[in-house]
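Hello,

Following up on my earlier ticket. Below are the four sequence lines again, exactly as submitted.
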Amino acid sequence: MSTFGQYFRVSTYGESHGRSVGCIVDGCPSGLQLTESDIQPQMTRRRPGQSALTTPRDEKDRVAIEAGTEFGVTLGSPIALRVMNEDQRPKDYGGGGKNIDAFPRPSHADWTYLEKYGVKASSGGGRSSARETIGRVAAGAIAEKYLRVAHGVEIVAFTSSVGSEFLFPPTREHPTAANNPAFLELIDGVTRERVDEFLPVRCPDSTVCKRMEEVIAEFRDKQDSIGGVVTCVIRNCPSGLGEPCFDKLEAMLGHAMLSIPATKGFEIGSGFGGCEVPGSTHNDAFVKAPAVTPAEANGIAQLTPEQRSRRPRLTTKTNNSGGIQGGITNGAHIYFNVGFKPPATIGQAQQTTGYDETEGTLQAKGRHDPCVIPRAVPIVEAMAALVVMDAVMAQSARQSARSLLPVLPQTVPVGESASTLMNGRQ
Amino acid sequence: MSTFGQYFRVSTYGESHGRSVGCIVDGCPSGLQLTESDIQPQMTRRRPGQSALTTPRDEKDRVAIEAGTEFGVTLGSPIALRVMNEDQRPKDYGGGGKNIDAFPRPSHADWTYLEKYGVKASSGGGRSSARETIGRVAAGAIAEKYLRVAHGVEIVAFTSSVGSEFLFPPTREHPTAANNPAFLELIDGVTRERVDEFLPVRCPDSTVCKRMEEVIAEFRDKQDSIGGVVTCVIRNCPSGLGEPCFDKLEAMLGHAMLSIPATKGFEIGSGFGGCEVPGSTHNDAFVKAPAVTPAEANGIAQLTPEQRSRRPRLTTKTNNSGGIQGGITNGAHIYFNVGFKPPATIGQAQQTTGYDETEGTLQAKGRHDPCVIPRAVPIVEAMAALVVMDAVMAQSARQSARSLLPVLPQTVPVGESASTLMNGRQ
Amino acid sequence: MSTFGQYFRVSTYGESHGRSVGCIVDGCPSGLQLTESDIQPQMTRRRPGQSALTTPRDEKDRVAIEAGTEFGVTLGSPIALRVMNEDQRPKDYGGGGKNIDAFPRPSHADWTYLEKYGVKASSGGGRSSARETIGRVAAGAIAEKYLRVAHGVEIVAFTSSVGSEFLFPPTREHPTAANNPAFLELIDGVTRERVDEFLPVRCPDSTVCKRMEEVIAEFRDKQDSIGGVVTCVIRNCPSGLGEPCFDKLEAMLGHAMLSIPATKGFEIGSGFGGCEVPGSTHNDAFVKAPAVTPAEANGIAQLTPEQRSRRPRLTTKTNNSGGIQGGITNGAHIYFNVGFKPPATIGQAQQTTGYDETEGTLQAKGRHDPCVIPRAVPIVEAMAALVVMDAVMAQSARQSARSLLPVLPQTVPVGESASTLMNGRQ
Amino acid sequence: MSTFGQYFRVSTYGESHGRSVGCIVDGCPSGLQLTESDIQPQMTRRRPGQSALTTPRDEKDRVAIEAGTEFGVTLGSPIALRVMNEDQRPKDYGGGGKNIDAFPRPSHADWTYLEKYGVKASSGGGRSSARETIGRVAAGAIAEKYLRVAHGVEIVAFTSSVGSEFLFPPTREHPTAANNPAFLELIDGVTRERVDEFLPVRCPDSTVCKRMEEVIAEFRDKQDSIGGVVTCVIRNCPSGLGEPCFDKLEAMLGHAMLSIPATKGFEIGSGFGGCEVPGSTHNDAFVKAPAVTPAEANGIAQLTPEQRSRRPRLTTKTNNSGGIQGGITNGAHIYFNVGFKPPATIGQAQQTTGYDETEGTLQAKGRHDPCVIPRAVPIVEAMAALVVMDAVMAQSARQSARSLLPVLPQTVPVGESASTLMNGRQ
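Thanks for your patience. The regenerated structure is below:
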């Protein structure tokens, strides 16, 4: 369905041909300062037309808060967000001999929507169009605002591969970037500002970014398309998030990411490469947590004393787990990869078969992205924010409920040295 | 939480130290013939102790139907399934100087459960133990029974990599198995019986299976562990399943698979490799669907005439999409990979830090799997069945509701040749 | 939360001070002909200002479909509905010495919203204002359209009491109207057109309506307010609706009705009066169902042959059950009462205590309904439609799933005469 | 479905003919001391056979905790509860010429279950039997334990009418008990111990109880049955509970109560009688909250200083609202009525029609309650506990999330005197 989240519940709506697209955010904490200016920046980052590499439509995508705030403060009631559809040009999609109407576009959603619903929108991709992601990004911006203010959470995504150009190519010795010091340093400090210095590709390395730009341009010129991978890091995430056994945090992140159009895969922490590593190497030994995290030393996060006090006392020496163990966050950086296929809509002629079972040739007109990776960056960030926000509220309910119970004399039969500690944590 | 699914809703319970583990299945269609003998085979396939390669505990894992059926037929009421905990040996987990109680086990869930809940089970992994998956497999067997009887659905998983031994190793030219004819032939015909001929590894290729067996034995002898990948195929799945925009079928599959303990990644269809392939190659052109599918030609599926009539009229020439387009099934084989990390519990001594923030050495006693991949096979199948079952019921509600509406004169402005068809499909 | 329904899922938003109010309807069957003209009539019936008895604001309440349809047909994607807030006059609520801001209004939601959210909207009732019901009525109109077209369902509500003036006053002999022939005749044939002949009170009896009108006028003149009861009947509802054990149809109806602002009670069928009647009288004996229902004989319902064939073969001689037995519909008329308290906002001065714990006098300015019953009529109808629609889709999923299973030789050991029949119904 | 609650989620299972009945409770706070002895008392209160007035079966109904606790403390994982079915006597239900199998029992669920599911349980009521309520009572006892320990909540239900014998009969002057001082005094102090002094009827007034006992005996002797009303009070409920707009607390209570078998109506606070009262009388003026509540003065509630500090600073002089305003609790006593119809199963012969559409006579054997009211008392209490518990956790999540936000300079434009206060409450 079009609802995501149990506690911070987002319902989105909208196709490209309708009056507007948008969402309702239900369950947002009251008392949060929120205006359109908190939401618009990510809307603009998502917007096409930021460079010659992305589709040149100039969608304004101005977001309006329709309800749920007053005097710039959230009321606790549903927040409704709305973005007008301004630049439709339906002819581009259906025009040119109308053959786009006779053929379901290969690897697009035309055929399956018709199989599912029996009807389909005439123009563009209807609900399967990229325009659907506007509601996600708008809602994600609200979640991010809360997480940043209340927990110092930072979420940054970037392009880590385009086609076969990798920022951290896997090797036989290092099948996963999880133990690559350069990767770990990058995710420890990278910011959105830094990522956007590498527009339009958003890969935070001059050399690799240049090569990726060339790859994309090459595919654009061939009227072809290419896929790639977005990597995302979540810093300062509270420990204890994730709801086993079915709603483990990586399961929710995977759900969220694989719901983004054009995704093909999801990896948490060491990922598929980590499956090739011995357990003795892969296990993340515990160490005493430092008083100041690297992010704080870098001046990225500013935590209140209370936030600091909620920090776990142990952390891990390595981080193959990607900040999640047993489906629950441990306070270390959460990082993951999301793979996006090459866009299905290409300028080249394609041999295929029509609704009437007759073979023929389909040639798309319109404006098409040769690569969605750069635009996917804020969408990945938004979905990450929605997952973390929902998990924060679930854990808040639990912690708050438990905090009202009397302290137990000793909860579990732990070794002598640990017992004091555990009582203290009651 | 411990509930999965909206329509076919499974709630599981149980730790290794309690009286029993099990589940409640709510929403199962009434009138389905169901006894314990439909469920037990997958319970037994999941059971440890099937060979020297897996943990030697002899858990009987006999399932009992507590409620929801009468005279071997489902009543439509909740079905309760229960498996006794018989072979606990809690000393194995806590013994040996009790140091396992003083240290949170690295990359296990001890620390995060304590961070989350403030208490944790003393013996084994509590709710994070592999024993939690019993409820999943039991519920999955019911879903499978329905899907097989009503739709001819076949779900088969197998081991496709252990460590760096791959059944279909990715190459520079073929970054994904999706276009490898040997892979496509395998998933078109492989059965559970065939997979179990390759016990204990469950990789359906004599040569590769042998190598994998050696790899696992090597890690066992080093008191180390190793990960790998399970591949799963779903055949004869009805078209139209999946609930955009957030509950696309691959999103639900990803959610389900990443909720299985020890998973690190999920790929649908061409997966991460597919992100390196040009769109012009990756797109799956449509072709007229054959009267008989390969599975039927192989005698695997026996469909009723009614099932046959619900088949889509088009299929795709290639299948990089993995049977899902726009988040919705198109009737082609669904296939995906699930990566499992090396088990966290290893016999080797590990330097780590205790609950009391003191460094020390942890050495696990107990019985430990050097590799979970073979046992994960039926768990992956079970979760796949739960996802498809839920999606089938969601789509049933939609289709059935739509079927009562009058036929529209013409629903969408399609090209002339297609319009007749689409009216016909109303 | 602000979401209602599992299958036909409605999320509403909006306060009186924001840009707009509205809703998203997710899960509506595709292929339904739907334009604003299907929705507007109930919006207009809900609108204040229809007579001297109701509040004189002239809200236009024009509804716009923002997304989810094309060419007047639903696409299966979320339907977004929006109504501008046009006529705010915030001064009326906050004005007059501002004392309305210093005092939480007695029996209104000011105090509890502040207790819950820590903030509250300044003008009017914020989310607790009657304007919140616009989204319900809009969504309900879509549900009604589907139910009418697909199942011939008719939902009609009317005013059955105002203060102590009852359409069917309970008596010692007849503590419930359920056995009153005049009541049964009324609910069998009453239509919305008929009810609206008795505007502004909407009690379909000239004499009683007149008395009620006088009661309301009397309270209006005293700057006081009065409550009453709305009775609602649902005809031609399919049998088999309702999801035991927790989501029985009467439980869902009760939930829906008691979520309407100002409600104090809900009764199904014979209701509280029925609790005073002996079981031997209260039990509804079964009889063979007639070929034509009274509603059809009255020319109210026109069913297709297929709808007719889905009719239960038995019905009940009496209908104390109100069409629901064991939480499941039996095909007979569903009827229920909803009690509404006197509106909390009255013109009279009230002694009360302020936010600062100081006693004082509160005198509301603004425009206030002396009685909400007449305007509540379309809101009750809307919520009834949402409940039935959700239950229809739940049951569709079940029936459709079961219909694909092979017929069992004999499902339950029934008496000899009945056994044939039950096989036939498999 | 068979799941209730979003945060404290209860899934029940079980028919009378199966191995066991029970439930899974997901989301219970960890660290709560819990053993079977916390649950058994309410199981026993629910048990039939407590006197000659109720059904004489001696069901032992011993509850076992299967999972979710260790060393008598909840772990935060799902708690599974199980009660064996011991005393089935299926012949009683189906025996005696088997005519009970040929006829759907009037006003029972036989017919509608068959309409819904196409199959039905052979013995007793299957899932519609009163045995289904065991899972509710068991789960409710856990919720109650938490609410009592963490919030001092007290939930007490009692019989307030049987047939036409009322504890507080409505009069023309006092159509509702809400303003009756005797009623208010009773709900302020009544305890379960006091209620059980009036076994088997559970009406806490010697005179009325005696009359009720006679009424029930009279109906038993006539092989007939009679209904009645259970009144329930919830004391010390935190303010701020309830989730507008659809999940107002009274809507959730109504949903919960109307899901109990045999219920016909629900009233909150002044109820239907309150709809006859002028607004000027019905409005509950605010007063400063006393330092000690009447319950505390009576020595019933013992609150911690922290619980005391969470008390609202205002309360209401009268309590027509029943402790809920705008769908949200205000801290005053919550009270409500639940109407139960006369049991459908009676010993008298009934003229009715069989599954084969043939008229005939049905005469039940078996053991039947002439009145369910006394046994319904603990079921009403259990469902009340489940509703409040779920609402407490929802509000915990909200409050806890909001508490991490910086204090706003001034949230709403309130009158001067109130503004300081409101800042303070941020």
